[in-house]
Amino acid sequence: MAYIRKDVSTLTTGERRRFVRALLELKRRGEYDEFVRMHIDYYTSDGERGLRTAHMTPSFLPWHRRFLLDLEKALRRVDPSVTVPYWDWTRDRATTSVPWTADLLGGNGRRSDRQVMTGPFAHATGNWTIRDGVTDTEFLTRDLGRARDPIGLPTKADVEWALSDPVYDVSPWDSTVTRGFRNKLEGWGTGRGSTAWLNHNRVHRWVGGAMVGGASVNDPVFWLHHAFIDLLWTRWQRRHRTHRYLPAEPPLPDSSQFRRVVARHQRLPPWNVTPDQLEDAGRIYRYA
Amino acid sequence: MVVSVDGAADVTTGPARKARRGTRRSALRGLLGATAALALAPLVAASRPARRQDSHGHGHGHVPAPAPALGLGLGANAFDETYLGRHLLGRLVPPVGVADTGRWEVTVDGRPLHLMRRADGTWLSMVDHYRSYADPLEAVRAAVDELGPGQMLRPAAATGRHTHMGGDHGLHP
């Protein structure tokens, strides 16, 4: 029977405690840092050669779906009652609202060095030392809303802009496409200012610190953010029932994208699974 | 059975880590074999200085204007400046052979900062991974903006692996 992923704002005190405790246990065992490294390893940019599986590519959504499932499986080995909650950043938008509370992910970084000082992931607890970061600091950093040059979280209208596009993705299947649900949600825009960061990308920037860098998984909000992104994919699927993951077929050898994106029935590295097989996870989990 | 992107039937059932090595090798093969297609584009992109303008709307059409060198006497293919108290040093490593387009070697206070190129010719760094900038110097300055006071990039030697600086699939095989 499918388990339920809940809105983080609805978790009971006990559910919050168990979720946090399971994360800390994975960190203690060294398993958590493997997720950090894997996300770094699979970040291939589209201006470079090679197969893109995780970003700037149609499989952005199924790749992260499977990535979350792996983390969730690890959490549930520690505590079978735990599931990954989602953070609906169109609703919980304040720097003091969930998930930034002391019983969940802790609050903003302090002004002097952006170090997170509160909650279970504060460095002083001894439980959350960054080992695979971009910088040599061992503490978790955040800069919620970017104090020096404020940026807002994406709005319901921004999300609707993506959800209303009936096409999953379009050629050339990269960060330059201006149509298609996938990139409108992933959020590769152009230019500067408000258009440079959209939806998924913009949330990484709004959180700041570790979350804006290549080692963004070091901030556990990564999972809550991506659970919401995953939820939005299910909403898009419900709204556009006749539309599927694209491309259905691999790009041909004369295409610039030949062997650089994963088509619907191709293997999605590092797993032995296809986007087709990941399109419907309803038998594994549902969103409340 | 699942067919992989390179056309081979894949029967891998082992742990992710095992498959990952294959991915890296594949990526490196692709890098060495196909960079010719990118010839000149990065050189042109690299020569643009930081621009100071905003564009609006979700559409594209961002066409950076050609620009003079960076004004430090180093030409368009290098920079050496102090920004917010940090020493930024970058140079385009000249291409070796026709299959090479060259790559940027960048340091901030002596620590390497890996840059990645986007398909539209813009650049992003390991520090600031969710948007891109018009040219390498702007990407490096943006990375410095993100570094907290006193934060240093992790020295490459500290990790003993390329993945820290953007993965084995990047421009630093």
From TrEMBL, chain A:
Family to which this protein belongs: Belongs to the tyrosinase family.
Cofactor(s) the protein needs: Cu(2+)
Pfam families: Tyrosinase
Domain Tyrosinase copper-binding positions: 55-72, 219-230
Keyword presence, Metal-binding: yes
Organism: Streptomyces phaeoluteigriseus
InterPro entries: Di-copper_centre_dom_sf (IPR008922), Tyrosinase/Hemocyanin (IPR050316), Tyrosinase_Cu-bd (IPR002227)
Protein name: Tyrosinase
Coiled coil regions in record: none
Keyword Oxidoreductase: yes
GO molecular function: metal ion binding; oxidoreductase activity
Keyword annotations from UniProtKB, A to Z: Copper, Metal-binding, Oxidoreductase
UniProtKB/TrEMBL annotation, chain B:
GO biological process assignments: melanin biosynthetic process
InterPro entries given in the database record: GriE/MELC1_sf, MelC1
Keyword Repressor: no
Residue numbers spanned by region Disordered: 1-24
Molecular function as annotated in GO: copper ion binding
Transmembrane helix in keyword set: yes
Keywords, alphabetical: Copper, Membrane, Signal, Transmembrane, Transmembrane helix
Transmembrane segments: 27-45
Name by which UniProt lists this protein: Tyrosinase
